[in-house]
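Components:
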Amino acid sequence: MGQRHYIEKNIYYHDTDCGGVVYYARYLEHLEEGRTEYCRARGISVKGLADAGTYFVVASLQMNYKGPARYQDTLKIATQVEKLGRSSLVFLQEVLRGEELLVESHTTWVCVGKDFKPKAIPGDIRSVFERDAKEAGT
Amino acid sequence: MGQRHYIEKNIYYHDTDCGGVVYYARYLEHLEEGRTEYCRARGISVKGLADAGTYFVVASLQMNYKGPARYQDTLKIATQVEKLGRSSLVFLQEVLRGEELLVESHTTWVCVGKDFKPKAIPGDIRSVFERDAKEAGT
Amino acid sequence: MGQRHYIEKNIYYHDTDCGGVVYYARYLEHLEEGRTEYCRARGISVKGLADAGTYFVVASLQMNYKGPARYQDTLKIATQVEKLGRSSLVFLQEVLRGEELLVESHTTWVCVGKDFKPKAIPGDIRSVFERDAKEAGT
Amino acid sequence: MGQRHYIEKNIYYHDTDCGGVVYYARYLEHLEEGRTEYCRARGISVKGLADAGTYFVVASLQMNYKGPARYQDTLKIATQVEKLGRSSLVFLQEVLRGEELLVESHTTWVCVGKDFKPKAIPGDIRSVFERDAKEAGT
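Structure:
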């Protein structure tokens, strides 16, 4: 399924806690990086949108932690569009170590203007998400 | 409802991002502090449990972001037990600014041993959670 | 010496790393909190200044790590003005566990405008720093 | 000077604060990554050493902040050995945006055992640092 986008993350001390594993909030940073690089790879500039007064904010988040990652693991963050609405979309993201699924996440992005009020996703970006969502089989 | 436990958090630069608001992953640190202080207030030592080979790990997490917090806000983190199972429990937590609800969260803790395998919550701790869960009306 | 200002910090999982101790960068967040609360206690609003176009930015930093802090330690952050110049000041800060000195830090703040160029510290704030610096014996 | 080692870092929301720039503590995470990748590139496994009871801990740190980095900047972290002692070494590290120097840092690593007491740097690793330090002209 070519519509998944991958980045690679090495795990450093700053990702871990004294339980010996990656701290549960840190994955949210990795997931942000995954979504940003997905957009960049599709020609969507998050910064360009922000400069033009269009922001995507995280409205909700579901995290399922299935196994711990550890210091100096190399992880893959897989990102794909799961659902697409008029002013929102849901990303399905996975944190993988080799073939092993460590974290599964569903993140809802809402498109807002400078007033933080929802607005329709601009057409050109929408068509990018739409193509990926369709090919993802949703 | 006396079973809710509160801590207060001042917001500093390190909590925020260049969107001008508190970064979405940072609340998970505030929520960890809320759960830890809830336990401490109930006489449960997370560290003591860990030293004795009993850990509570976050197995899943639902975050609903309803409004942004900003630099130098003073927030309240409300923590209560929502559900109690044999080897797991769910916390309902809210991030409030005055009366305004900014974030709502459901966090599932699973009780595990040193091998990271689920085990029954020890009886004395269980009775604390049980009492709070009952009085919370769930 | 009454001119030192103290805050208390509990240490949580999010402060630590898999070496079992507080991560070296985390203290910089505690030190930010110490400087901010010092200012607040002296009636100086960092946010008010920023809204008026006056910012204090960290220009340099010296950290000396003398001993590790650990999960669920309660630390004190001591903050005092060490030196005062026309457009800059140096804070001496210490991280203490009881009487034990864990970290010593010298942080140079430069006063800048919206253009990030140095400017003289506004007179009313200056007099606050001056009084504290003098009484600190520098 | 071939002895400098470089990594590249993209800047994300989680690196920044509401001042619109990269938060001053975040660079310490980038610098940790730079030192770890320098070691990896030289065949030194920080994790392997830790497993064998040899740790390098940061004893002191000097940071000079010369200019701000911003969201979606791409930075380079340059790492080289500046000084080498019996049980310690100093890294000179720079954060660069293109040719522009944003941050300069000197970090002292002390080699310690499980008891956190200084010990001589093991010979095989020492010779790696030595070669790099010499060629760096120190």
